[in-house]
Write a structure and sequence with these properties.
Blueprint: E1 3-7, E2 10-12, E3 18-25, E4 34-39, E5 46-51, E6 58-60, E7 68-73, E8 78-83, E9 92-98, E10 101-102, E11 106-110
Parallel strand pairs: 2-11
Antiparallel strand pairs: 1-3, 3-8, 4-5, 4-9, 5-6, 7-8, 9-10, 9-11
Length: 112
């Protein structure tokens, strides 16, 4: 079955860190760029960061530059999103997308 599965979300205080994972099953993961999106309550889904298939190119939404880092391990069919210095505005459901496949999302809540 072709799928992407996100994990690693949770509740964290402002200034804290989380690392999200996006694991791929059932397709040749290493061929595809992977993109992270997020959707806050009442808002549209928004692009956060992308990583090329070979991990040589990464791009970030301006508001997360310097705080978030996207990486991948093609041997493990997994992409990561390291999120540091988290802010309440980062609260959202985070999704990964690649090869036309969406994950189910993982909730990130930043609150004191």
């Amino acid at each position: 079955q072709v799928q992407l599965v996100e994990s690693g979300g949770g509740l964290v205080q402002p200034g804290g860190s989380l690392r999200l994972s996006c694991a791929a099953f059932g397709f040749t993961f290493s061929r595809y760029a992977i993109t992270w999106y997020r959707q806050a309550p009442g808002k549209e889904r928004d692009w956060v960061a992308s990583i090329s298939s070979a991990a040589d190119i990464t791009t970030y939404k301006d508001s997360v530059k310097g705080r978030f880092t996207v990486s991948r391990d093609n041997a493990k069919n997994t992409v990561y999103l390291q999120m540091d210095s988290l802010k309440p505005d980062d609260t959202a459901v985070y999704y990964c997308n690649g090869g036309g496949v969406w994950g189910q999302g993982t909730q990130v809540t930043v609150s004191s």
